[in-house]
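To whoever is covering the structure queue this week,

Two jobs came back overnight. Logging them here so there's a record in the thread.

Job A:
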Amino acid sequence: SVTLDRGFSATGLVRANQARIDGDLDCSGAAFDALGELAWRDATTLSLDRARIGGTLSLTHQTRPLHGASLAGTRATTLTDDNSTWGEGLALDGFGYERLGVSSPADAGFRLRWLMQQNGAHLDRDFRPRPWRQVIKVLRRAGRQDAAREVAVALEAHRLRIGRVGADAPRGQRWLARGTHRLFGALVGYGYRPLRLVAAMTVLWLASGA
């Protein structure tokens, strides 16, 4: 295990790319970017690209949010985070974890805010869907089906908003693909909320009967 917890302080980039840690990486209470200079320079505070952590990656109780943290291709068994952990400009593509820590927020609101703090390009022109799908998978595994559905619906809505839906179709047919996708979302929540269509049909049947 590696411990960089309370008392650890760094003023520049902390990098452990491709590290192999059989146990835990405990960074709870650490002071990354202790002087607060990296945030306004859009620099990375912590880079764990392609690291392998056999136990828990703990990033709770951060002195400053991890601005520009890069976990691209990182693997950990458990992720433990909280409201103090994440700053903006995150790189999460390929970040894999089997479960969230007991104290980690598992509600859709927190996880969606986390996903939306990714690098701007990864949310638009160079969209990366893998972090979204990873959150959905972990929430389902934890039995948080409602939260997983909410994130899944938000993923489809975001894809539509940035023009990813129908992007591969011929130019003259893109409107049809996007219109169908929008209707699919309105009627059944992209397949995640099928009861919405049943309710709509019931109301229509009652209205017609009246």
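Job B:
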Amino acid sequence: QTEIDKDRLKQLGAKNIIVSGNIKSVVEYKITKHYQKPKEELIVAGSTHKGEEELILNSFKNIKNAKLLIVPRHPERFKEVDKIIEKFAIQNNFSYGKIENGFKNDIILVDKIGELLNLYSVADKVVLGGSFVDNVGGHNPLEVAYFKKPLISGKYIFNQIAIFDELESFIFSDFDNLTKDLEKIQNYQHVKIKN
């Protein structure tokens, strides 16, 4: 992907190495299901990991006229995240449901595989998980860029640095600033690939 990768491969004895970038940048992303966007602002928290759901929920607490969709990265966490969201919703007077019921609730758990691209296509803002905790390394922001959506990522993107270097107009945030950044980022500030 990068000159750093090339140097590492050389140290291992590889020859004739070409830096070609990330193959994810040439993938065509396809929608498999068309959702009807609700009238409220739709915030999609994609590919979340342990410890991130609470951060995102607490940051959503003061956002007005919006709906939050949480899409955990790993299906084996669906039940755990379901309990986290349900408890938060009860304590903070939000309605809560699952994606099978559409967008009628304030907070929605997406407990199905293969829906993230479909949801990015109708999102107003995206919070990209795997980047607010320091042991994951981030996730692919190109999916969000493909749909030209405003993107907020955490700062722990060590597995995605080369891809983020190809992008502009996104926000790096953290636990202390996510609420402010969700309010600040506007629909016209969509992430895009640099020219």
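Note for Job B: DSSP finds seven helices and nine strands in the chain.

Please reply-all if you pick these up so we don't duplicate work.
Q.
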